[in-house]
Specification:
By secondary structure, this protein is of the alpha+beta class. It has helices spanning 3-21, 27-31, 138-152, 184-197, 223-228, 245-253, 267-281, 285-291, 322-333, 338-342, 404-418; strands at 134-137, 156-162, 165-170, 178-179, 303-304, 318-320, 346-347, 353-354, 359-361, 367-373, 379-385, 389-395, 398-399, 402-403, 428-431. The longest helix is centred in the N-terminal third of the chain and has 19 residues, at 3-21. The radius of gyration is 56 Å and the shape is rod-shaped.
Length: 437
Amino acid sequence: MRLLPLISVIALLSIGSTLTLAPSAGADEKYKSRPKPPPNEPDNPAYKRPPNQPQRPPDPPRPPAERPPDKYHPEKKPPEPREPYVPPPPPPQPPPGRPRDPWCPPPPPPPEIIICPIDPIDPIDPIDPIVRPIQLDFRTMLLQRLRMLELDGFEGEVVIGFNGRVEFDRRGGFETQHDIGVVSQAFTAWGIQRLIESGRLSRTTQIGQLFADVPEDKRSITIEQLLRHTSGLGNTYAGEGESDRNVAVRKLLAQPPSSDDVFNYSEDGYVLLAAVIETVTGLDYDGFLTESRIIDRNMRSTHERQNLDWGMRGTGGMLSTARDLFAWTSQFLVSHERGEVAETRAWTDDGVGIGYGWSWTGDSPQVLQTSAAMEDGQNVVIMVYPGDTILVVTSDGFNGDVPWSERVANELEPAMRTWDPSRPPGWKLYADNTASH
């Protein structure tokens, strides 16, 4: 019973396959009327080339170095290989130690160090040619040294300039008018020389020709001897308290001589020279200095002290400021009387050359100077360096036993000797790094 269904299924399958493989009736007759295409070979005699169809030239050979096109995209070439990737260097790591606080900003970078180029004309240290001096601005150098001196106790004014032009002025913030003491002798000597230049006086003129009642032993004293401190007079200040010129002159000439025709510093001699000026001109001493333009009318702070008697006239008792003294010195340096007044007439044992109210000190080249220091502490120094650079220092005190004006002048002298005033503004000063304070 079970074989009967199985036999039926096999019979059905065999009938279906027979029907599929058998061709349909009339298939060959459908395609008998169409011609068969000739074979596509040029050497076949039955093949004919289509008319007016050019033959395609062969493709040019491809360079061996050129990459072949992509087989799926004939017009697209594969991308060229890229440079190998080089990773950037790692960021610098902070130095070992305490980590920085994230809430605090990082510290500022260190300041840039600027090295000034060395001037080819810089002097070279003869001891160590490798070491060269540091190039500093002249005003900066002066301020550095003066600030150190002010810390030590200096109070005063410093004026520096050239050719009538002030280049540096450092004031101490107090009244700058000072008693210039024996610096007045330079004013007196300039006035006498101006009278000599005008022919109203001579160096050989004797005081016996100018004053009455002159003692016999002093009648032959000449103007030249009074100027050079060789008159034999001393420092008696016999005219102190006298307002009458003739009385003061008689008292001075009544004093015994202290020396004979040798150098002996004498303030009495310059008091007599002030009396000579008044006798010859008919003007008072202070008025003659203004009239002759020795004291310029613009020097409003320069004049004699009020009610000054004949104890110090011509050799002291004059008030001035550092600015006025700079203007006065500038005027003197361009005057016709400079050569005669400043010329060395005698030498001291210390090698100081003495002129008329001026002296020459220091090593070669020497420096022209005049200075004064009073008992009340006021002091002043005027220095004229090579090239006519002028330094004026005034002060009201002493540094130990040394007047502050002298101490300041000594501290600034190396810089003043090095400064070239002919350079334009912005000049440099060549100095070492060990400035004395």
